[in-house]
Amino acid sequence: MATTPTSNSAEPASRESSAPRALIHLDMDAFYASVEQRDDPALRGRPVIVGGHAHRGVVLAASYEVRPFGVRSAMPMAQALRLAPDALVVRPRFDVYADVSSRVFDILQTVTPLYEPLSLDEAFLDVTASRSLFGAPAEIARRLRRRIADELGLPASAGIAACKLVAKIASDLAKPNGQLEVPAETGAGAAFLAPLPVTRLPGIGPKSAKIFDAMGIATVGDLAAKGLAFLEQRFGPGGRDLWERAQAIDPRPVIADRDAKSVGAEETFDDDLTGVEALRPRVHAQALRVAHRLRRAGLRARTVQLKLKRSDFTLVTRRVTLDEPTDDGQTIYREAARLLEREPPRPTRLTGVSAQNLLPAAAPQLGLFAPPPRAADTLNRALDAIAQRFGTAAITTGDVAASTRDDPTLRAPPPDEIGRPKK
């Protein structure tokens, strides 16, 4: 187990307000591939690739057994199969992954309401105020990972730090099935980052690495040593951002769904789809996912937005403002479908639905003269109860079920978009 824990005792309650932040980045290991190996014993210990079309698709997940061949997620399937021709390719089962993801988040919220999903398989948690109840952050992370392993049969890794940037990098280094804590003391985050390759910082890829290499910058410490003035002179306004990252300065808060500016879902397809009838089931499924998340966060939306990315990568967004805020999937779907029907039938590679202009859901009225519950609200409560007990895949609409069954080449949905205020 790639584990490098450090001691960190629980803070006394009286010092909670002055204590440094305690954040956890929890990430499921090779999520889709791990689910497939869990559900099919014949895949365990074998090189497994979860992916779509062999020519146009991408690798959605690569088991740790196939990674020594150079296979990584987001790699073109054709390239992956050249590197590992004997790998076992499994078609994705998104309904199963969504169900498992929902159960993971159910576990996370038992220790804090401040959890921020980044995708189906990872989230940030702010456990600063949870220490008085559950102990040190490292112990909270161990407890969560143990529950996920015991109840869901899946491995997860965690990074613990005082800021998001360091916690995310720590969880990456702890993989697979480990955890790594970076102390919250002043300077500890920068010291942790200093020996790492500069490409560990988000936004610095191979092209940027060549530029830094020409400047004699190989590690994060080398970048920090250049100083703020030099980096601002060389990179303009982006220089300060680079310097702050190298110094482990990252004040971004963990933002729960209820504090989000928008809640959305989108999917990219292996093969372009053309026409309303082909796109409608996808939009319907996305609307239902958005509505479920709204209800879970206690929110309603006044605005519905439809997003389309055409085959030439042209991006189209259309939105409508409702007379009354809603958390009903059918209402969101009807509005998104109307927006879709107004667009010309062009080849499309991505659709997305998002709920914006969010408001807290009104508390139900009590008393003799309270209006009876709306049929849609009663139905949604029943659907949510079924999903809670049997999983999100237990019940759906006919068109969504048919599209999932008939088209196995759907590419995985990207992380559910949660719009945040710009930092």
Report on the structure:
The protein has 423 residues and is an alpha+beta fold. It is 38% helix and 21% strand. The chain folds into 3 domains: 1-6 and 18-186, Alpha-Beta Plaits (2-Layer Sandwich); 190-246, Orthogonal Bundle (DNA polymerase, domain 1), CATH 1.10.150; 257-419, DNA polymerase, Y-family, little finger domain (Dna Ligase, domain 1), CATH 3.30.1490. It has 15 helices and 13 strands. The strands form 3 sheets. It has a 5-stranded mixed beta sheet with strand order 5-6-1-7-8. It starts with 22 loop residues before the first strand and ends with a strand.
Keywords:
Alpha-Beta Plaits; disordered N terminus; five-stranded mixed sheet; DNA polymerase, domain 1; Dna Ligase, domain 1; 423 residues; globular; alpha+beta; disordered C terminus
Topology:
Elements (H helix, E strand, L loop, with lengths): L22 E6 L2 H9 L8 E4 L7 E4 L14 H7 L4 E3 L3 H15 L6 E5 L2 E5 L4 H4 L2 H16 L3 E6 L2 H11 L4 E3 L6 H6 L12 H9 L5 H6 L2 H8 L2 H9 L15 E12 L2 H22 L1 E12 L4 E12 L2 H13 L6 E13 L14 H16 L7 H9 L11 E2 L4
Parallel strand pairs: 2-4, 7-8
Antiparallel strand pairs: 1-6, 1-7, 2-3, 5-6, 9-12, 9-13, 10-11, 10-12
Helix pairs in contact: 3-5, 10-11, 12-13, 12-15
Brief summary of the model shown:
The protein has 423 residues and is α+β, with helices and mostly antiparallel strands. It is built from 15 helices and 13 strands.
Give the number of DSSP strands.
Answer: 13
Report how far apart the termini are: 36 Å
The whole-number mean of residue pLDDT values reads 83
Number of helices: 15
Q: In terms of per-residue confidence, which ranges show pLDDT below 50 for 5 or more consecutive residues?
A: 1-17, 363-371, 403-423
User: Which architecture name of the largest domain does CATH use?
Assistant: 2-Layer Sandwich
CATH H level of the largest domain: which superfamily?
Reverse transcriptase/Diguanylate cyclase domain
The first-level CATH class name of the largest domain: Alpha Beta
The fraction of residues in strands falls at 15-25%
Task: Output the helix-strand order.
Answer: EHEEHEHEEHHEHEHHHHHEHEEHEHHE
Secondary-structure class: alpha+beta
CATH topology of the largest domain: Alpha-Beta Plaits
Shape: globular
For the sheet with most strands, the description reads: 5 strands, mixed
The strand line-up of the biggest sheet is 5-6-1-7-8
Helix content: 25-40%
